[in-house]
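Quick start: read one record
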Amino acid sequence: MASRTVDELAVKVLVFRRSERWREALSTALLGAWYTPLDETGYLPSLALQALKREACALHRQLTPVWERRNRRGRVLSLDADLGGLSLYDLVAADIDLLAHTEGGVYEDERLNAILRGLDPAERHVVVAYAEGEGTTWTEAAAHVGAGAPEAFGERVRRKVKRLAAEQHRRLAQRVRTFE
């Protein structure tokens, strides 16, 4: 289908913007099975066009680079994003040890110590393995430390850590309110 025809379909029928990315997404979506009702019934209901539009939107999102997408708090920036002569990559400290120990095996970050105190030793091992990159998921971290039923154990540790962190955040907010 010629790009002009795809652009006309995008703008006039589906109410999309006219751009190369939308054209590519719509061209790909047109190859899908959105026209099946036309084969079966002989006419094209509006639901078929809605399916085409949904598919084109999904493809457009996939074609949009991560750093151009929006999330709830703004945009994600590429590490190469220009910040007036510097980039984010220049500002990121590569040698920061997030799990730096002080004497006695205690971590420098007291918030981390407070959460770790609420965990039993096996759970602590999973958290440290996850933080040090021994697994990309909680299940993998639990499997790395040799936990039985790593999927269930990793999920339990994840929920417990989340709950402890939320409680810590709630207490901190409560302390801040009492000082105001």
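The radius of gyration is 25 Å.
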